[in-house]
C-alpha cells in the first residue's frame, strides 16, 4: 500500500468535490437540501437508524450528481457539436439523479413527516 499515492487520490477527490460545489448549480441545491436535512435531523433528534438511512440517501444523491456531471463533461469533450445520441446519454444520466433524489425525498417524508406535522 502506497500511502503517498492514497493521499494524492484523496486530494484529487477533494478537488472534484470543491469543483462540484463551486460550479454546479444542481450540486449546490443538493448540498443545501442535505444541510437542511442534517439540521432537521438534529432538531427532531432522529434515531440512529434514521440517521443511517438519511446519510445513505445524501451520499447516493451526491454520488449520482457527481457521476452525472462527469458524464456530461465527458460528453462535451467527445462531441462538442450537438448530437442527439449524446443528448440522450445526458438525459439518461440526469434521470438517474432524478430517480435517486425522488427516493431521497420520499425517505425524508417518511422520517420527518409526522415529526414536522406534530409541530402544528
State the separation between the terminal residues, measured CA to CA. 55 Å
**Percent of residues in β-strands:** under 5%
Helix content: over 70%
Judged by helices, strands and strand pairing, the structural class is: mainly alpha
Order of helices and strands: HHHH
How many strand elements? 0
Rg, rounded, reads: 18 Å
**Separate helix tally:** 4
Average pLDDT taken over every residue: 96
- Low-confidence blocks of residues: none
Labels describing this entry:
88% helix; mainly alpha; 120 residues; globular; 4 helices; single chain
In short:
By secondary structure, this protein is mainly alpha-helical.
Question: Helices, strands, pairings?
Answer:
Blueprint: H1 3-23, H2 25-43, H3 48-78, H4 84-117
Helix pairs in contact: 1-2, 2-3, 3-4
Fold and architecture overview:
The protein has about 120 residues and is mainly alpha-helical. α1 crosses α2 (about 25-45). The mean pLDDT is about 95. Helices cover about 90% and strands about 0% of the residues. It is built from four helices and no strands.
Amino acid at each position: 500500500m502506497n500511502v503517498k499515492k492514497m493521499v494524492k487520490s484523496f486530494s484529487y477527490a477533494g478537488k472534484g468535490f470543491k469543483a462540484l460545489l463551486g460550479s454546479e448549480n444542481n450540486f449546490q441545491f443538493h448540498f443545501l437540501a442535505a444541510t437542511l436535512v442534517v439540521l432537521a435531523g438534529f432538531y427532531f433528534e432522529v434515531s440512529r437508524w434514521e440517521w443511517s438511512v438519511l446519510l445513505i440517501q445524501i451520499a447516493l444523491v451526491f454520488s449520482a450528481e457527481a457521476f452525472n456531471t462527469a458524464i456530461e463533461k465527458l460528453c462535451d469533450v467527445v462531441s462538442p457539436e450537438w448530437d442527439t445520441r449524446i443528448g440522450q446519454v445526458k438525459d439518461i444520466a440526469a434521470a438517474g439523479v432524478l430517480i435517486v433524489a425522488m427516493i431521497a425525498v420520499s425517505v425524508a417524508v417518511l422520517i420527518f413527516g409526522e415529526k414536522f406535522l406534530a409541530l402544528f
